[in-house]
Every structure is written in structure tokens, then in C-alpha cells.
Design goal:
The chain is of the alpha/beta class and 518 residues long. It is 46% helix and 18% strand.
């Protein structure tokens, strides 16, 4: 026996409704691209009810905002405008109260905010807005809405019931979307925290957000408050002097004298005089008394860079200075005391030098009170984009260039290079690229030849031609999604492929388009 009802003035049957629900369930079971399938389901709903439009919203519990996730009958611009706070408008009220709301004539309702700029009339006929909550495990995850021509002869209870049934069917999809939105929100909050930490680190003139650099920042903050001797270790070009600056700035001696001595730049015959000073006539050419660096730094900090290059004869005197904070000038007999904090740095293997008797073991233990190891650039590759942005800004100011960005291919080359010269080499590389650029963009061909050859950078293609093609294809898809902020349809259009082809490749390369949303 046929079951008859009235919808929009036309006859329909219970069988049609069951067919609709069956088609929706099949669509969900076979779903590969949830976003596209949600749009299709909303289209089926609109066509079945002979409605004007329908849309699905997601409730983000992290920030209590409600966003339009999928729609049929709304443009992408209209969807972007559809953002609501909890309790705001009809959508916000439905989420807040967790129950359906029917507005028979939206033009007469003050609750209908019309943020999406919908038509309030259809061929001079009033429109009805029906909104139901999508509930999962007793909690609202979003809403499902439909706008249709007002018909005083039908009961909206049937439409509300149908929307609630469809909402319960797609709740699994909605829950996943909600979790992803909240995960994205949590990531944004984490990024803000990291940016705040990064801004604090910038005040110390150090750039880095990797785990190893965060450890360095933590050690600097801890030891900076003390007067302990610090030994900074790391390869040449990693920024040991910047760490010494940061330690001094974090100490109670900030604002007082900070003297830097590059021990490797001083000849053996002069280094003792430079550090401790000399009396007049102490040696040939000593026409006047000279005040040494330790004496000048009294009350402040002295930084002994490349301490591994100090000759053994001077190491004895240096040991006494570190132990007793006193010394005599070359050719003098008067003992001079100096209240100075000592920070040392080296890129040499001091332990090996002790074995070969090039460095005193007792001096080693005196300077190695609080060692800080600075990782090489190849150990902190995630910091390269931050450093690149910093250097671009620096050279835009210094050289009056107007570089706006660096291309993905150029950044990829920087990321895979081994950087034997560390940050110093990267800085020189970016300065050169800024000068060569003619379109305010750094391209891969602006980088030095050593970065552009597979042999020199140890980045030879592996896996054959298909592997290389797949890598290029993957990169093109990521760039397209970044440009379109995760919009699969627009990304496919930009790449001149169909949405189906785009979906197949997203699945193949395990790329989540939602991660590219802003």
C-alpha cells in the first residue's frame, strides 16, 4: 500500500524518502572524498525537498566558533562569510540549545542574521529556514539547515525529522571534521606559543624553533642569571658569539663592559700582552704601559673565542686568572684583581688536544663548568625557513632590496644542502640571492652552484624517473593547496585536472587537504 503525504504542494511517497536515505547511506559507505560527498548529499536533499539551498556547519569547541563546512546553493564567498559564535543567530542558538529551530518567514525574524547574504524572497514568496543540531554521543557537533519556499499547508515536523535523520547518518563525517578543525585550532595556538617564545629568543639575537635550539635557549636563560664560567662548543659558523651575547644580556652584568677576544687571530707573541697587559719596557717595542683585556673587562664579561688556539705558555697564566681572578701584567710584579665573568668558545676537540698535550687538562676542567653545545645547521634544518626570512629582512634593510619571498623549489634546495659553513654560509648565500634577484623573488637559479648540483649537495635522484615525477607531482599539489587554502576544487582547476584526478592523487600521496586551510 502506498503511503501518501504532502510536500511543497506535490504528491510524494514514503518510498521516495526511503530511496533518498538509502542513496545517502550508500554515498557515505563508498565515500573517499568526504568534502565532495557532503556537497552531493546536500544537493540530493535540496532536490528532494525542492528547496533553495542547504548547508552543514561544524562547531569548533576549541574557540566556540561555528563554520560552514559544506553547502549547496551558496557560493564559496557566501560560505566564507558564514561564521557564528555560540548563541549567535539561529545557527548559534541551535548549537547552544541542542534542539531544532524553524523560522517560517525569515524576512520577519530578527534571529535570522543572514551573514551569507541569502535571498529573503523567491519570486516574491517568503522563504522558510529549518535548522537541526547534529548530535554525537549527546553533544552537538554541528548543524544541518535547509531554506525552502514557505508553504502554509505543510507541517515542518516532517522536514525537521528528515533533517535529523540525515544528520544522524552523517554524524561520523561531521565528528571527523570537528576533530580536524579542533586539531587545527590547537596547532594554531601552539604556533602562537612558539611565536611568543621565538620573539623572546629574537630579543637574544638568536633565531630558531627546533627542539635542539629550544634546549639551547633554556640553558642560556638558566646560566645567564649566574656568574659561572661557560664553555660554548660547536662547529665554525653556528653562532657561538651570539650565544655569548645572549648569556651576557641575560646576566646581572648586562649593560656593563663586554669584551670579545678572538684568540686565534692573535699571534702567540702578543696574546699574553693582549689578555693581561704589559708594563713599559717589558719587551722591545713596549714604549708605554698597556691595560689588558681582563683588566678592562672588570665588573663585566669577557668572551674568549677559539680558546683552543691559546698557546700552552699562556694557558698557565689563564688558569690562575680563572681560579683566583688575579694576574700580573707582562714585565710587572703587581698583582691585579679583576671581577670578570668568563665565557669561552671553541670548535676544536679539546679532549683530543689534552691527549696530544696541546691543551692543559686542569684548564679544561676550569672552563668546562657549564658546557653548551650549539647544533650545526644540518642538525636543525627545520630552522632554515626562519633563518631565511630573518636574513631576507636584514638584507632588505641593509642593501635596500625589496625581496618579498623565496620560491618553494629554492627553499627545498636550502633544506637538503649539508651546510658545511653553517649559518654563516647560509647568510652569505641569501645575501647573494637578494642581490641577484630582479623580480623581488628568490628563485633556485639565484642560489650558488654548489647548491644546484646533485653531487655537491649529496641529493642525487633515487628511485628512477617515476619516483622523481611523483615527487614533482606531490610538490605541485601541495603548492596548489597552499595557494587555494585547501580548496580541492580550485586546486584542481589551477592544475588543469579534474576533481576526480585530484582526489585520486590526494589519496595516493596521503595528502590531507584540510591541513592547508587558514
Amino acid at each position: 500500500m502506498e503511503i501518501k503525504c504532502r510536500k511543497a504542494g506535490d504528491e510524494c511517497y514514503g518510498l521516495k524518502e526511503m530511496t533518498l536515505l538509502f542513496d545517502i547511506s550508500q554515498r557515505l559507505i563508498q565515500s573517499q572524498q568526504l568534502k565532495n560527498d557532503l556537497n552531493s548529499i546536500l544537493k540530493m536533499l535540496v532536490e528532494y525537498l525542492e528547496a533553495e539551498r542547504s548547508f552543514l556547519t561544524i562547531f569548533n569547541r576549541e574557540n566556540e566558533n561555528i563554520y560552514i563546512e559544506a553547502a549547496y546553493g551558496l557560493s564559496s564567498t557566501q560560505q566564507a562569510k558564514g561564521k557564528y559564535k555560540l548563541g549567535e543567530g539561529i545557527i548559534g542558538k541551535v548549537v547552544e540549545m541542542s534542539r531544532p529551530v524553524v523560522i517560517e518567514k525569515i524576512s520577519k525574524s530578527s534571529l535570522f542574521l543572514n551573514k551569507t547574504n541569502q535571498e529573503l524572497f523567491k519570486e516574491e514568496k517568503e522563504l522558510t529556514f529549518i535548522c537541526v543540531p547534529v548530535i554525537d554521543d549527546g553533544k552537538v557537533t554541528g548543524t544541518l539547515s535547509v531554506t525552502r519556499i514557505y508553504n502554509p499547508y505543510i507541517s515542518f515536523d516532517e522536514d525537521t525529522r528528515l533533517l535529523s535523520i540525515i544528520g544522524s547518518m552523517i554524524v561520523r563525517v561531521v565528528r571527523r571534521k570537528q576533530e580536524r578543525l579542533e586539531e587545527l585550532e590547537a596547532l594554531k595556538e601552539k604556533n602562537k606559543e612558539l611565536e611568543n617564545k621565538l620573539s623572546n629568543n629574537k630579543s637574544l639575537n638568536m633565531i630558531g624553533n627546533s627542539g635542539k635550539m629550544r634546549d639551547v635557549f633554556s640553558l642560556v636563560q638558566m646560566v645567564g642569571k649566574t656568574n659561572s664560567t661557560v664553555l660554548i662548543r660547536g662547529e665554525s659558523g653556528v653562532g657561538k658569539e651570539l650565544v655569548a651575547d645572549a648569556i651576557h644580556e641575560a646576566s646581572s652584568r648586562k649593560g656593563k663592559t663586554f669584551i670579545k677576544v678572538n684568540c686565534s687571530a692573535l699571534p702567540d707573541s702578543l696574546i699574553e700582552s693582549e689578555l693581561f697587559g704589559h708594563e713599559k719596557g717589558a719587551f722591545t717595542g713596549a714604549d708605554n704601559q698597556r691595560i689588558g683585556r681582563f683588566e678592562l673587562a672588570s665588573g663585566g664579561t669577557i668572551f674568549l673565542d677559539e680558546i683552543g688556539d691559546i698557546p700552552l705558555s699562556t694557558q698557565v697564566k689563564l688558569l690562575r686568572m680563572i681560579q683566583q681572578r688575579e694576574f700580573e701584567r707582562v714585565g710587572g710584579t703587581k698583582t691585579i684583581k679583576s671581577d670578570v665573568r668568563i665565557i669561552c668558545a671553541t670548535n676544536r676537540n679539546l679532549e683530543q688536544m689534552i691527549k696530544s698535550e696541546e691543551f692543559r687538562e686542569d684548564l679544561y676542567y676550569r672552563i668546562n663548568v657549564f658546557p653548551i653545545y650549539i647544533p650545526s645547521l644540518r642538525e636543525r634544518q627545520n630552522d632554515i625557513p626562519l633563518l631565511v626570512d630573518h636574513f631576507i629582512g636584514k638584507f632588505n634593510t641593509e642593501n635596500l632590496t625589496k625581496i618579498k619571498r623565496i620560491t618553494t623549489s629554492a627553499l627545498d634546495m636550502l633544506m637538503v644542502y649539508k651546510w658545511p659553513g653553517n649559518i654563516r654560509e647560509l647568510e652569505n648565500c641569501i645575501e647573494r640571492a637578494c642581490i641577484l634577484s630582479t623580480d623581488n623573488v628568490i628563485h633556485s637559479y639565484h642560489l650558488p652552484p654548489s647548491l644546484q648540483t646533485a653531487d655537491s649537495s649529496n641529493t642525487s635522484a633515487k628511485g628512477g624517473m617515476m619516483y622523481t615525477v611523483e615527487q614533482v607531482e606531490k610538490q605541485l599539489i601541495r603548492e596548489a593547496l597552499t595557494t587555494t587554502k585547501g580548496n580541492i576544487a580550485k586546486a584542481a582547476e589551477n592544475l588543469k585536472i579534474t576533481e576526480r584526478m585530484m582526489g585520486t592523487r590526494l589519496k595516493k600521496y596521503n595528502i590531507d587537504a584540510w591541513r592547508y586551510k587558514v
